[in-house]
Every structure is written in structure tokens, then in C-alpha cells.
Write a structure and sequence with these properties.
2 copies of one chain form a homodimer. Chain A has 8 helices and 13 strands. In chain A, helix 3 (58-70) packs across helix 4 (89-96). By secondary structure, the first copy, chain A, is an alpha/beta fold. Helices cover 31% and strands 24% of the residues of chain A. The first copy, chain A, has helices at residues 19-27, 35-44, 58-70, 89-96, 112-120, 140-152, 170-178, 206-209; strands at 4-8, 30-34, 49-53, 75-79, 104-107, 121-122, 128-132, 156-160, 187-192, 200-205, 218-222, 228-230, 233-235. The first copy, chain A, has a 5-stranded parallel beta sheet with strand order 3-2-4-1-5, with helices on both faces. A 5-stranded mixed beta sheet of chain A has the order 7-8-11-9-10, with helices on both faces. Chain A has a 3-stranded mixed beta sheet with strand order 6-13-12. The first copy, chain A, is elongated and about 60 Å long. At the A-B interface, helix 1, helix 4, helix 5, strand 6 and strand 7 of A face helix 1, helix 4, helix 5, strand 6 and strand 7 of B. Strand 7 of chain A pairs antiparallel with strand 7 (128-132) of chain B, so a sheet runs across the interface.
Chain lengths: 244, 244
């Protein structure tokens, strides 16, 4: 019987992958994942069995892992970023109750909040919230409540999945909610395709951010009331006395 | 002139370090950091100049990096976890304005939220907040407001720095605040010394968590109303239809 490694591969380039993730991908017979992330892995690892399922086929993807492991394969289920942050770790526990004999392990990775922050400057140095704008699995009212609560508490907010074809105006709606508690001049940033072709990042004000086109590869950062721009970068002071 | 790499080394073992962090530590002449993290690095990298400053000497630590780089050394400033989450990235931008010619770069790493979640199960699969209980640089009233807001919005909460010698009762205070919005049976977890000697993790209810002794190497996870225990692990369902 094989083992399954639910593996966060980081933002998408080899250098931000952990040594453990690299070892797992090198060692496993079968690499399974959503098409986009499989392509990233295929670029670096040859002579593997690559299997993918589509966007809404997460349960099938998990079942496929257990089936392959039952056949004796060691399986890497790849997730972008970290496997435990909006990743597949939870669904493997849920579906895994039907396969109690097959062992699996979570291999953590660098999530987009961390890799995006490193590009933008240092936006996450104080307390922050990570909120997904996807309402496929979470009702929009709940997402709205979370945005309002964290903006009210002056926390930095990092938004995952800010847009898709079906959810074109969601970032604007989120910005409008935050604008009830934060100034239009609040410093914000976006990162896109981190560590991949088309990588970009930019710093905006909250008012500007509401009008910026984003996509499913964008991660959005909304500063707190102390966030400022230093040399063009987005920086949230922790509060150290610098004495100059 | 040398370059400075502000490097997140992950939880503390080599396997959860990124390839880039490993490359930076191998390449740099001088490795600077808080004593505890320097010891972790010293374990793996020999023939380097190791320099450390104490707990409250963060500004001096940054100045030391710029001084060494001005002398021509390539410097790695090591942070545990991710350099951009309660790490040194921000202070380097702040102190760096006095050294405009010295280049530096942030190298992201696996933060304790990710590495701890991987040990506990899958607690962070839905929206979550990361809050530090240290009131050295943030007034307690602000921390309290953030805890209340995120508990009210039914977000998973990950607490960093839950305790120190001077702040013995802070986790209990935080739990009492959360108990105003969450049931005493809410599923919680702690992780300690992730990837190092003395690694441990445990799952509790919120009521139990209030009485658990923690220290500066503990990371605390407080579930939302949907978080449950599967095979002894802490799992927050994302909401997929599993169809069984």
C-alpha cells in the first residue's frame, strides 16, 4: 500500500518550495492535482504519472489519491501555496474516513499571503485576516460579516480568490465595505502570478483598489490605519522605537 | 558592497525550509538573528560568521546587518517561520532608509500557522485571523478588539506569542473573550516547538484551552463553529458536498 502526501508547493517556482515538498515530488510515483498546478509540477518532474481533475472535482481528486495509494503507488496531491490554507488537506480527512488503512501526511508550504507580502514589502507585520472572496462554498453574507469585523478592528486583510469570471465585482464590493471603517487613502497592494510567468505587484490606495481588475491568480492586501509606503513598498509598522 | 537577505527559515527543521532559504544561508558570509534562531542555523551551516542580539534589540540587529553589508559581506538575517509575519522585514524597511545604497530582499518561509496546521489536521481551511497576544508593541485594548471582532465573525483564530514570563494569563483572557461568541465545546488545538526537539501538538475544547499552560514556542488554534474532530485531528470543513 502506498502513502499520500498532501503537498503545498508554494507560489509556483521551485525556489519557494520546501525541501520536504521537493523530496516528496521526487519520491512519489503519481502526482495528482488541479490542472494548473499539475502543469507547474510537470515542468520540474519527469517520468511520473500525472493525473488531474477539473476545478469543481475536488472530491473525485481525493478519491483518486486513495485509489492510487490502494494500488500501491506513493501519491503526491499537489496544492498551490500551502495545503492547509484553502487547500485539499481538509477534504482528504473527510474523504479519508472511507479509507482508514491508507496513511496520509500534510506537507506545509509557503502560502500566497507570505509570498505576496515578500514581493510587496512587509504588509503583514501586525495582526491580519485571511479571507476568501469565493462564495462557492461560503455564503456571501458570512464573507461580508468577516470583512466588516476585521476592517472594524483595524486589521490588515489579505484577500484570496478576489475574482473569477462569475464574480467580477466582488473586490469592489469588499472595498466598499472596508471604506466604511478605513480611509480612502489606506495603503493596499496586489500581487499576481507570484513566482511564475506574468508575475506582478503594485501598490494602490483603497479607493484606487476598488477599480482595479483582478483575477483568480491575484492576492490582495489591504493595509491597516498604520500601513504606509516606504520607497514604493507597502509596509505595516509593528511599533518599534527607531530613535531617529 | 554586500546584499542582505531577510530570510524566513520555517519552523526550525531543515525539511520545511525553502530551497531559496537554503541557498541564501549557504551563500551568505554572515548569519544574523535572535539567539534561538541562530542556534538552529548554526546546527546546519558551518564556517559562517554568526552574530546575534538579544530579544529587545531588534533595531540593533537591523543596524548590524547594514553595517556588515557595508563592509562587503553578504548577510542572511534569519527569522523563524516567515520573515514577513511578525518578522524583521518591516524594521529593515524602516531602518533601511538610512542606508539607501544597500540592497536587501525578503525570502518568505513557512509560518507557524501553516506548519502548526499541518500537525493538527486542517484547521485553517476557511477564513482565519492571525493575532499576536504580545502587548509589548500593540496595546492590549487593540488586541482585545481584534479577538472579539474575529470571534464575532466566526473566523478561525491562530494566536502567536500566546504567553511569556510576563504575560502568564493572556491565553485565558483571550479564551474568555472568545467564549462570549463561541461555545465552550469549540474545537481548539496547540502546537509547540514545531520541527524541533520537544515538538508536540494536542486538541482541546475551548473551555479546556483556557487552562492549558503555553509558552513563547506555542501556537494556538481556535476553531470556528464548524470545526470538528476527525480521527483525533482538528478539521475545519470548507463546505464541499461529499455525498455519502
Amino acid at each position: 500500500m502506498g502513502k499520500i502526501y498532501i503537498t503545498g508547493i508554494g507560489p509556483g517556482n521551485l525556489e519557494n518550495m520546501t525541501l520536504k515538498a521537493l523530496e516528496v515530488l521526487s519520491f512519489c510515483d503519481t502526482i495528482i492535482g488541479y490542472k494548473v498546478y499539475i502543469e507547474l509540477a510537470r515542468h520540474y518532474f519527469k517520468d511520473k504519472e500525472f493525473l488531474s481533475t477539473g476545478m469543481a472535482e475536488e472530491v473525485q481528486r481525493c478519491e483518486l489519491c486513495f485509489k492510487k495509494a490502494a494500488e500501491g503507488k506513493n501519491v503526491a496531491l499537489v496544492c498551490s501555496g500551502d495545503a492547509g490554507i484553502y487547500g485539499m488537506a481538509e477534504l482528504m480527512y473527510q474523504t479519508g474516513t472511507a479509507y482508514p488503512d491508507i496513511p496520509f501526511e500534510i506537507v506545509p508550504g509557503v502560502t500566497a499571503a507570505s509570498s505576496g507580502a515578500a514581493l510587496l514589502g512587509a504588509p503583514l507585520i501586525q495582526d491580519f485576516a485571511v479571507i476568501s472572496l469565493s462564495d462557492l462554498l461560503t455564503p456571501w453574507e458570512k464573507i461580508e460579516k468577516r470583512i466588516i469585523a476585521t476592517a472594524y478592528a483595524d486589521m490588515v486583510i489579505c484577500l484570496y480568490n478576489p475574482s473569477s469570471k462569475k464574480r467580477a465585482g466582488y473586490l469592489k464590493k469588499a472595498c466598499q465595505l472596508i471604506l466604511k471603517y478605513a480611509l480612502p487613502e489606506t495603503i493596499c497592494g496586489i500581487t499576481e502570478n507570484i513566482g511564475r510567468e506574468g508575475e506582478k505587484w503594485a501598490v494602490y490606495t483603497l479607493k484606487e483598489l476598488a477599480e482595479i481588475p483582478v483575477n483568480m491568480f491575484t492576492t490582495v492586501f489591504i493595509g491597516n490605519s498604520q500601513t504606509k509606503v516606504i520607497d514604493g513598498m507597502m509596509v505595516t509598522p509593528r511599533g518599534y522605537k527607531i530613535g531617529r
